[in-house]
């Protein structure tokens, strides 16, 4: 029997609507199954341990599969699940005080083995609410999802320290899609990988987009993502006043992926001040739409250390902003930048939140596309959309290797697979498929406390 306390009658009714298995436990499997798609693609790190009196915090862009992954995990807890969706205005208003919510859970403790709160970014004091529930020591695990981590940190940056295991879930990685497809032999695996990479470069990897039946459907879904999610969140969640400037900034960033960005120039073009551009970039990063890369500085006087680059987490979003979904990669003038962005996206999906991804640029204009620091070691990644016939390294790459002796260098290209060594650095020329395998050699810690 449910016992209601400290919650308005309207909120009680809404919780019943969101949790029909609490009053119909015999139908729990059927009712929870409604939250799952016909086909489920397993996600990396989804089997993280659930700990009593600690939260599993899953953040990532809208529609990246966070809720689907959680519901897939929660099937074994049926019917003892308490689910709240904070996108619902009534629940968002009624559940502002953690003390009232935890009192309700205490009174119904025998009914619940886990709590799942979805879309928590809609709460103004999300971090404090989560902290209050954890500190109440309810004796059960607690799962939270959100598309914007800003609202979990803005007013209480340290409140979840030691209280939460954090997981960032991005759109599908190449590894996830290949493992799900399970091709029968190496030849089929390579052919499928080439097709998947082409699709990811053009349409991206959002689950709904990637699993759509036709290219037209993919474009329609991408359009909805851009208009309804990115811009709607900017307006509703972050109260952006100049949506026109926000949209123009997105277009400008889409047109110069992989190139150094000058915030003053962007501000001038968008007709806003530099502070506004910085704020908009923070919003885009917190919503997992773009990520700003800082230059790597190892203390050498020949390095540039101040001008960042910006990449998109998903190539499909970038292409949608420019209305360019050309499928013939060999004819695209932006293919070099797109492949570099794809490599960046795979790095983000396969490395933990604590890994540092940067780039190296000398004052003479030489570059190494990505520098990754992992467990005290440096790893370098260079990207070139070309079918190489023999291994060759440019002078800037050789200069970097001589100066810093990274543990490994991956040279991603479209055909050549070769291994050599320069000093203490292991150098691998890799196709996108073998680059995926190269990434697997990282520790791949997907969670942070």
Q: How much of the sequence is in beta strands?
A: 15-25%
Individual helix count? 18
Q: What's the number of extended β-strand segments?
A: 14
- The share of residues in helices is 40-55%
Would you write up a description of this structure?
The chain has helices at 9-18, 28-33, 66-74, 89-94, 98-107, 126-135, 150-153, 174-181, 186-203, 207-210, 215-236, 243-255, 263-270, 274-286, 315-321, 335-350, 395-404, 432-439; strands spanning 55-59, 81-85, 114-118, 142-146, 164-168, 290-293, 309-312, 356-361, 367-374, 377-383, 408-412, 418-422, 425-430, 447-448. It has 449 residues and is an alpha/beta fold. It folds into 2 domains: 9-168, Rossmann fold; 174-448, no CATH class. The strands form 3 sheets. A 6-stranded mixed sheet has the order 2-3-4-1-5-14, with helices on one face. A 6-stranded mixed sheet has the order 8-9-10-11-13-12, with helices on both faces. β3 (114-118), α6 and β4 form a beta-alpha-beta unit. α5 runs parallel beside α6 (126-135), α9 (186-203) packs across α16 and α13 packs across α14. Mean pLDDT is 88; it is low at 443-449.
């Amino acid at each position: 029997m449910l016992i209601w306390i400290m919650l308005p009658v309207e909120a009680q009714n809404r919780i019943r609507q969101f949790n029909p298995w609490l009053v119909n436990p015999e139908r729990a499997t059927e009712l929870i199954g409604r939250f799952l798609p016909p086909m489920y693609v397993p996600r990396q790190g989804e089997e993280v341990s659930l700990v009593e009196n600690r939260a599993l915090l899953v953040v990532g862009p809208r529609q990246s599969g966070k809720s689907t992954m959680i519901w897939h995990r929660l099937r074994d807890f049926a019917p003892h699940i308490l689910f709240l969706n904070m996108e619902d205005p009534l629940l968002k208003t009624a559940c502002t005080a953690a003390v009232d919510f935890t009192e309700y859970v205490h009174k119904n403790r025998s009914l619940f083995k886990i709590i799942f709160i979805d879309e928590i970014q809609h709460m103004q004091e999300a971090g404090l609410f989560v902290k209050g529930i954890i500190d109440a020591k309810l004796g059960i695990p607690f799962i939270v999802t959100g598309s914007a981590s800003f609202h979990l940190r803005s007013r209480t940056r340290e409140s979840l320290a030691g209280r939460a295991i954090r997981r960032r879930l991005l759109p599908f990685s190449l590894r996830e899609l290949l493992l799900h497809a399970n091709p029968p032999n190496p030849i089929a695996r390579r052919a499928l990988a080439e097709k998947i990479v082409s699709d990811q470069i053009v349409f991206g990897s959002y689950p709904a987009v990637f699993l759509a039946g036709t290219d037209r459907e993919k474009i329609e879904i991408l359009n909805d993502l851009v208009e309804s999610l990115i811009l709607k969140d900017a307006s509703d969640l972050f109260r952006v006043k100049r949506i026109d400037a926000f949209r123009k900034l997105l277009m400008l960033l889409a047109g110069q992926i992989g190139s150094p960005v000058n915030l003053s120039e962007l501000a001038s073009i968008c007709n806003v001040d530099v502070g506004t551009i910085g704020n908009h970039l923070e919003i885009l990063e917190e919503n997992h739409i773009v990520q700003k890369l800082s230059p790597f500085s190892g203390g050498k006087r020949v390095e540039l250390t101040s001008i960042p680059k910006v990449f998109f987490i998903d190539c499909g979003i970038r292409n949608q902003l420019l209305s360019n979904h050309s499928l013939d990669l060999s004819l695209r003038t932006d293919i070099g930048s797109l492949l570099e962005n794809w490599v960046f996206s795979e790095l983000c999906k396969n490395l933990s939140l604590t890994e540092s991804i940067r780039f190296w640029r000398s004052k003479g204009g030489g570059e190494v596309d990505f520098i990754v620091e992992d467990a005290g070691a440096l790893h370098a990644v260079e990207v070139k959309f070309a079918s190489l016939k023999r291994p060759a390294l440019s002078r800037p790459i050789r200069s970097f290797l001589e100066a810093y002796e990274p543990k490994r260098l991956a040279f991603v290209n479209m055909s050549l697979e070769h291994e050599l060594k320069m000093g203490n650095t292991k150098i691998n020329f890799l196709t996108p498929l073998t680059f995926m395998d190269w990434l697997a050699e990282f520790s791949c810690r997907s969670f942070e406390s």
